[in-house]
Amino acid sequence: MFIKGTSSNGFTLVELLIVTGIVTMLSAVTIVSGTFLFNRARATQIAKDFKETKAAWELWKSDTLWYDEMLLPLRYPRESNSPYANESSKINCANEILMSKTDLFTNKSGKPNWRGPYLSEVLHDPFGKEYRYDNDGDSYPNNGITGGVNIVLHFCPSDLPRYQGIIDELDKIIDNSDGRTRGQLRYGVEDGSSGIYFLLDAQ
């Protein structure tokens, strides 16, 4: 004789539902935790790349510091000046100069004391995008971007979902979570592309 709701050979239906619920909950927690860890690791790599590139530009400056006709130091090359003027192009939702096309890798500006290359390799973000150089006076006040010299990570709007969590982690690592529109790290949208901006100099 059997008692209703029980089985002599296994779990009851209620027990199976409870176990299934627990497994589903644990799976969801694992996925969320895994996503956070991936975002954290990717943000850590990008922050490291930003700082390594900044250090490379500091070395370039120390080797090649030069002055304009007013004897004022021009600390970084301007995009609008030759030989940088023809390097910008709208490719893959980006219109800033690839870092590999700057003075960090070849002596484009013709400095006599150039001792590069200042990076041992071309750096890419975790998704394979090369970092870019920005020094053409771009100003997007609503995004906290008001000119200056920046290392830029450009990506298309369709890529935003996979960068969304990374941006917040980067802000935490670099600026102690001061928001996306202030500090050394800022995020903005311009001309159909999205960008993470790491400020080198406010010149």
Would you give an account of this structure?
- There is one protein chain.
- This protein has helices at residues 13-64, 160-175, and strands spanning 97-98, 132-134, 139-140, 145-146, 149-155, 185-190, 193-201.
- The longest helix has 52 residues, at 13-64.
- It is built from 2 helices and 7 strands; from the N terminus they run H-E-E-E-E-E-H-E-E.
- A 5-stranded antiparallel sheet has the order 1-2-5-7-6, with helices on one face. A two-stranded antiparallel sheet has the order 3-4.
- It is α+β, with helices and mostly antiparallel strands and 203 residues long.
Keywords:
single chain, 203 residues, alpha+beta, two-stranded antiparallel sheet, 2 helices, 33% helix, elongated
Molecular shape: elongated
Order of helices and strands: HEEEEEHEE
Radius of gyration: 25 Å
Q: Could you describe the largest sheet, including whether it forms a barrel? A: 5 strands, antiparallel
Distance between the termini: 88 Å
In the predicted model, the low-confidence regions spanning at least 5 consecutive residues are none
Domains (count): 1
Give the total of beta strands.
Answer: 7
Percent helix, as a range, is 25-40%
Q: Which class do the helix and strand fractions yield?
A: alpha+beta
Helices, by number, come to 2
Brief summary of the model shown:
This protein is α+β, with helices and mostly antiparallel strands and 203 residues long.
Layout of secondary structure:
Elements: H1 13-64, E1 97-98, E2 132-134, E3 139-140, E4 145-146, E5 149-155, H2 160-175, E6 185-190, E7 193-201
Antiparallel strand pairs: 1-2, 2-5, 3-4, 5-7, 6-7
Helix pairs in contact: 1-2
